[in-house]
Amino acid sequence: MSTSAKKDKMNSKELGLVLGQQILGVNDLHYGLWEHDIPLSFANVAEAQQRYTDRIIDALPSANGGGTGGGTKVIDIGCGTGHILGQLLDRGFVADGLVPAPKLAEQVRKRLAERSSKPARLFEATFEQFPVDEYREGYDAALFSESYQYIPMAASFPILAKIIKPGGVIVICDFFKTEHAGDGQPGDKSFGGGHKMSTFYEELEKHPFSLVQDEDITHLVSPNIKLLDEALMLKIVPAGKTLNRFLTENYPRTWGIIKAIFKLFLGKKIEKQKYKYFTGNRTQAVFERYKTYRLLVLKRDS
Ligand SMILES: C[S@@+](CC[C@H](N)C(=O)[O-])C[C@H]1O[C@@H](n2cnc3c(N)ncnc32)[C@H](O)[C@@H]1O
To answer: Which pLDDT tens digit goes with each residue over 58-82?
Structure first.
């Protein structure tokens, strides 16, 4: 495989994000904020996502409060499809984006190209590869919207300490593992992702940032899990069983061989996915036990 083909190869995390976006037909790749006046339904996902976006943008300094007189400069790290980045630009921020997934970068580039004013720079790399020396104290703020969990924590802070101006802020809105993670109870391994919350606080102590806001919004985010769990258990699982029955009754030999081949080559992976998705453990209650969704604001010490 050539180097550029390797670079463009989609990995399983990216597959999940792009598929989720295509199936749900949404612009954002976060769970959304299900405030109590929004009825839980797929029709309202975009509204819940917009509430979440508004909340995190409100946590940033005001758009025209930048120290350079040219507007607050923010970098949206792990910017997904660029939907939030576009809104930052619309609201008057000077904004850059960073996204390592080629399929998503393509969408961001398209979105930026459709805009007539305010160019933004798009870094197509992981945050660990950020060109720190070019951007020393280059930003008033950094935003991680459901992207912090993908970035090694120990690598993120030294970069942030260099690129955020003294007095600048970092907004992280994402889920973390609770103290229950690894307890072996049903559902323990049903939701992947997230740094350990306690490790985050320990790591933060080592760097020049102070925690100025720490809001637990788990109960406003977790209804999304209920929505997806119901679709999975009430629609996708029964549909899969019907299809399996049809293939077993009508093409017993061919279907049997296909299943055996899958089992032979992907046995372990299939078992892991079966446990994760099809044992009825991906519930709102399990999510709330093992994950804590936080809106965190950190201030760079002066
Ligand atoms: C769940 S999506 C969130 C996207 C967007 N921020 C939003 O709220 O819609 C996670 C994002 O993190 C990005 N990501 C994954 N690994 C990363 C890394 N090492 N550095 C920076 N971004 C990363 C993915 O490409 C994706 O854009």
So the answer is: 999 999 875 555 689 999 999 999 9
Give the number of other CB atoms < 10 A from CB of residue 270: 13
Helix axes 102-113, 83-90, angle to 10 degrees: 30
The CATH code of the domain at 3-223+290-300 is 3.40.50.150
DSSP-assigned states of every residue in the chain: --HHHHHHPPPHHHHHHHHHHHHHT-S--S-----TTS--SGGGHHHHHHHHHHHHHHTSPPTT--TTSS--EEEEET-TTSHHHHHHHHTT-EEEEE---HHHHHHHHHHHHT--S----EE-S-GGG--GGGGTT-EEEEEEES-GGGS-HHHHHHHHHHHEEEEEEEEEEEEEE-TTTTS--TTTTSS----BHHHHHHHHTTTTEEEEEEEE-HHHHTHHHHHHHHHIIIIIHHHHHHHHHHHHHH-HHHHHHHHHHHHHHHHHHHHHHHHHHHSS---HHHHHHHEEEEEEEEEE--
Name which residue sits closest to atom 10 of ligand 1, judged by CA: 147
Spell out which residues line ligand 1, taking CB within 6 angstroms. 17, 28-30, 77-80, 84, 98-101, 104, 126-128, 145-147, 150-151
Per-domain boundaries in the chain = 3-223+290-300, 224-284
Q: Which residues of the chain have pLDDT under 70?
A: 1-13, 16, 66-70, 117-119, 275, 278
| Beta carbons within 10 angstroms of residue 13's beta carbon | 13
Measure the CA–CA gap between 96 and 73, rounded to whole angstroms. Answer: 8
**Ligand 1, atom nearest to 126 Cα:** 20
The distance of Cα 85 from the centroid of its chain, to the nearest Å, equals 14
